[in-house]
């Protein structure tokens, strides 16, 4: 991103600045949304998702070239609807002020924490789940009483257009607005003086967003990614591990921030794991070219990048196993990339350094479990970690000796679908979390409130100081003071 300011960037219809100013003016005039308004808007949002499902699924598929309708229904419709249902069930309890302990010195005063909306929240959504990753944080931001401005990805323009139309139907423009456009709009958006900025995307872009937000001291939540490992213990059934890792890897053709990025397998089990993985692909995707359930890569640029990762690993001595059950010709124009296993890629190959975001699975070998743990810990902290083992003590060891945003034992991806669990990264994989109660609190200010009692002893501490204060300090501190 450049260092340009919003005033130096002229948008085609000058939509961004007026949208932000309208939201800010509404906040200044009306402040946050009431409980009744929040619940009503969440109901309307859920209803709109159901009415717009077909149009949104068509738009998403057209943006990708081909996107499985089932994957879209699960991730872009079911997940937001489930989140809204969960939020509505818990919202009143989250909003309720919480009592905090009051020191005996200040009794009978009382302490409370009240939860206030932050104000105007900015949400920058990515392309891989373009609806879910805009609507779920939106639902939590509305639940906390905020007004929201959304910038969807320019890589999914049809989805952005449909989502903008849907949200315009649900919300007044002084409550929620959507602005579309290319990278220049994203630059201007991230430099606006929001009360909170929520970004989902790559680590590299997240750094730019955080720098831009810093100019206005805007607090940020960064939902990033990274290289999430899957570790298979040799005592765990390889066919089960391969099935669950393959499903997690190939969902949305690997274009998932929590997809297993690489798999650690004991060196004497590599060939067996490869065979098991191939069997899973053959069963799940007997064909690839005309299979509506096998998703395309979102753009030519990303497709070429993935092909380049494999080509580089091949030239550097890695063994490449392309899994194409019927040996079909996959035209580059379709942007369908066959599931590919890469064995023995050098650690400094691009494939092993960069998040893959595609149906390519490097396999890394280890000898002892401690070696696998050390391998993970030698790299930036991942968004997710997957461990396959039926021994509870070893599972606890892996969880305690590694750090990741979240984790699954004996499966992949599914921790993200647990409504009551927080979702977020750590270190290079993100800052902050949402989902669960954390979603509400991410978009809320916890205001500490001290309520003085009508009858109190505060006056004893007022100057001029004398023996009374000496006695009180002796009691509190345990020292004898002399005037």
Biggest sheet record: 7 strands, mixed
Instruction: Estimate nothing, just give the exact number of structural domains.
Output: 2
Neighbour order of strands in the largest sheet: 10-11-12-9-8-13-14
**Through-space gap between termini:** 63 Å
CATH uppermost class of the largest domain: Alpha Beta
> By CATH's scheme, which homologous superfamily of the largest domain applies?
Aldehyde Dehydrogenase, Chain A, domain 1
The secondary structure category is alpha/beta
Average pLDDT reading: 94
Low-confidence parts lasting 5 or more residues at pLDDT below 50? Answer: 1-13
**Structural Rg:** 26 Å
CATH architecture label name of the largest domain: 3-Layer(aba) Sandwich
- Percent of residues in β-strands: 15-25%
| CATH topology term of the largest domain | Aldehyde Dehydrogenase, Chain A, domain 1
Number of helical regions? 16
Gross geometry: globular
Percent of residues in helices comes to: 40-55%
Please provide the count of β strands: 18
